[in-house]
């Protein structure tokens, strides 16, 4: 645009010059309504006013915070402020223009006397809403005609009005933006303080902060010791904690929070601590962000509880906020806009964390609100004590609760057989070992009895003697028959005696043979056979039973069918029998039993009470009477079944009031010892 102005032909008539100036004013007037940067707008204005007046140059001086005028925008002022003399010339001109600024009246003042050739400055104060904010200065050669100077003053004043209109529009846009930002910040504060749920608060902070700051991504992290953990990411329902981006952001935030300094990255990583720089570079490999700000959230707590203004002390950080943008924004301006957002986020997150750390907060807060609704806090102190006690007592007697009786027991196969010694003797040979599967009638061990050997020898001896005597009688009778039957020495009595002896010996031999067979049967029984198909349960059979003397009826071995069903053998204390019997009588279904294995605490299994013994047994260890019970279980639910595995169970006896369940043992004890 500047080159096109310089190449335009000079106006030949006053009307053409006026139209040219009006055209330039229309152009800058159109620009003044646009939301363009001040550098661009004032550059265009100064170029046009310089061209319209054939001036040396032009400038806009603005008021600085310290009250002086600063050269903010300028064009073609190399001649007026040459190198080496610029400082002195600027100081002189600032003094002259400051007077115009204070008087708020347009005027023509001489330029600095240190620069040759001489120049004058056509100065017009710039005001908005009655307050001066700068001066538009037009640099013209000195000694121009008064009429020309007045013409240039009017032209400069016209362009100054356009500049004032631009500034007014800019201030209006800033005000509207500030009003818009303020409303969004108010909405943000209202949303993040809605409740004290930590997760919901973090989620709202992340998403609402992103909308307020118009950033691409905002993450909220909580501080846990020296580590940070991402609680929420804008636009994401739940962060994926295993992703590299999340893990590296947590590492970077941990380093920033540890330093307690805000990190602002806009493309440069210089002057950063090594641990932060390393973590930042690792994170930038995972994200295309060009602007990154991580601000620690630190709540300030009062030192004391005096009613006066309380001094504040820094506490441990409650977390951090990470703000990212993939566009190249002004990082410092972003942080400035984020200040109120961060303040509200710090307070909301700190309150949510404090609430989460309160014991029983999730119960007490709703209770407090409910009591306030019914007017509890207006009641007398006595009623505030009596009513809760009555409510608690009533609840104890009215609220039902599961009632169960504790029992102890062990897991065993349903089919289990004991192997006993049939006679006195000793173990000669063992054919099985622990855990060995056996079939029915399979040999388990061989016993030997010295008594049987003696009996066998005695019987054999008696049998041989009787047989010899019988043979002798048979010989005598045979010889007597071959003699003369009419011999004088053959009497009926002798013949009858031989017959009687023969009959007696025959009977004796039969008895001895029966005794021998019975003894043989008992000897055969010394070879112990498995009564069922199953598995040997005894441990270290060879070491325990080898060559061991045994007595008749002594338990030697156990065989159980581990592939069949299993049951739960329980011992119910006799003093608790009444509760189980009463519950069983009231229930049409078998009572449920829940139990835990002693080697697997925390995992509960279930079964059903199958039968109860009609006797009371005595525990050998505690000498406490108990009633044996048997419960059915599903063995498929229990891994690694082992015979005799101890369990702790509870027999479910229906429901009773809370007071009964909690106090029945105490009541029974008191009755037993005080009212018996």
TrEMBL record:
InterPro entries for the chain: GAF-like_dom_sf, MFP_Cation_Efflux
Superkingdom classification of source: Bacteria
Family annotation (Gene3D superfamilies): 2.40.30.170, 2.40.50.100, 3.30.450.40, Helix hairpin bin (1.10.287.470)
Coiled-coil regions, chain positions: 495-529
This protein's UniProt keywords: Coiled coil, Transport
Cellular-component GO terms for this entry: cell envelope
Regions crossing the membrane: none
GO BP term (any one): copper ion export
Name of this protein: Uncharacterized protein
Organism (species): Blastopirellula marina
């Amino acid at each position: 645009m500047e080159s096109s102005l310089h190449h335009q032909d000079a106006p030949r008539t006053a009307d053409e010059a006026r139209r040219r100036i009006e055209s330039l004013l229309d152009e800058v007037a159109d620009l003044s309504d646009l939301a363009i940067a001040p550098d661009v707008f004032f550059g265009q204005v100064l170029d046009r006013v310089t061209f319209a007046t054939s001036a040396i140059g032009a400038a806009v001086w603005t008021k600085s915070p310290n009250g002086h005028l600063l050269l903010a925008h300028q064009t073609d002022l190399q001649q007026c402020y040459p190198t080496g003399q610029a400082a002195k010339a600027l100081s002189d001109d600032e003094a002259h223009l400051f007077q115009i600024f204070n008087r708020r009246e347009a005027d023509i003042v001489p330029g600095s006397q240190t620069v040759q050739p001489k120049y004058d400055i056509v100065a017009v104060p710039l005001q908005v809403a009655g307050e001066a904010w700068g001066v538009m200065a037009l640099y013209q050669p000195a000694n121009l005609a008064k009429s020309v100077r007045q013409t240039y003053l009017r032209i400069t004043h016209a362009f100054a009005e356009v500049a004032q209109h631009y500034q007014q529009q800019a201030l209006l846009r800033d005000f509207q933006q500030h009003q818009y930002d303020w409303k969004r910040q108010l909405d943000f504060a209202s949303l993040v303080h809605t409740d004290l749920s930590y997760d919901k608060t973090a989620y709202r902070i992340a998403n609402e902060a992103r909308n307020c700051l118009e950033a691409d991504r905002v993450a909220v992290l909580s501080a846990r010791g020296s580590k940070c953990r991402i609680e929420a990411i804008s636009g994401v329902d739940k962060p994926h904690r295993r992703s590299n981006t999340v893990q590296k952001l947590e590492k970077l935030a941990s380093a920033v929070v540890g330093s307690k300094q805000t990190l602002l990255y806009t493309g440069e990583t210089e002057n950063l601590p090594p641990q932060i720089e390393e973590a930042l570079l690792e994170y930038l490999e995972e994200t295309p962000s060009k602007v990154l700000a991580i601000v620690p959230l630190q709540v300030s707590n009062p030192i004391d509880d005096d009613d006066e203004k309380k001094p504040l002390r820094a506490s441990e950080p409650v977390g951090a906020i990470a703000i990212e943008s993939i566009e190249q924004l002004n990082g410092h301006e972003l942080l400035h806009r984020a200040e109120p957002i961060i303040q509200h986020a710090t307070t909301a997150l700190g309150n949510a964390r404090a609430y989460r750390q309160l014991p029983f907060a999730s119960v007490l807060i709703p209770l407090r609100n409910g009591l306030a609704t019914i007017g509890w806090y207006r009641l007398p102190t006595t009623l505030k004590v009596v009513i809760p006690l009555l409510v608690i007592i009533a609840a104890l007697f009215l609220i039902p609760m599961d009632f169960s009786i504790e029992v102890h027991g062990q897991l065993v196969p349903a089919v289990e057989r004991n192997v006993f010694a049939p006679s006195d003797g000793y173990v000669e040979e063992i054919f099985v070992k622990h855990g060995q599967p056996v079939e029915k009638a399979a040999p388990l061990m061989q016993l030997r009895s010295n008594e049987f050997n003696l009996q066998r020898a005695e019987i054999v001896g008696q049998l041989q003697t009787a047989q010899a005597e019988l043979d002798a009688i048979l010989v005598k009778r045979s010889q007597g028959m071959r003699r003369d039957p009419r011999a004088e020495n053959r009497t009926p009595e002798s013949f009858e005696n031989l017959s009687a002896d023969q009959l007696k010996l025959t009977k004796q031999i039969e008895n001895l043979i029966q005794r021998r067979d019975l003894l043989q049967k008992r000897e055969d029984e010394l070879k112990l056979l498995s009564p069922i198909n199953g598995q040997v349960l005894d441990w270290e059979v060879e070491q325990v039973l080898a060559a061991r003397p045994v007595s008749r009826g002594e338990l030697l071995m156990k065989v159980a069918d581990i592939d069949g069903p299993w049951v739960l053998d329980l011992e119910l204390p006799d003093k608790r029998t009444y509760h189980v019997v009463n519950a069983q009588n009231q229930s049409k279904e078998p009572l449920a039993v829940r139990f835990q294995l002693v080697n697997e605490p925390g995992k509960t299994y279930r079964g059903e009470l199958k039968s109860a013994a009609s006797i009371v047994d005595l525990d050998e260890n505690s000498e406490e009477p108990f009633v044996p019970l048997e419960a059915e279980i599903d063995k498929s639910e229990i891994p690694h079944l082992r015979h005799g595995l101890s369990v702790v169970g509870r027999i479910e006896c229906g429901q009773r009031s809370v007071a009964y369940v909690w106090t029945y043992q105490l009541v029974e004890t008191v009755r037993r010892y005080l009212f018996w």
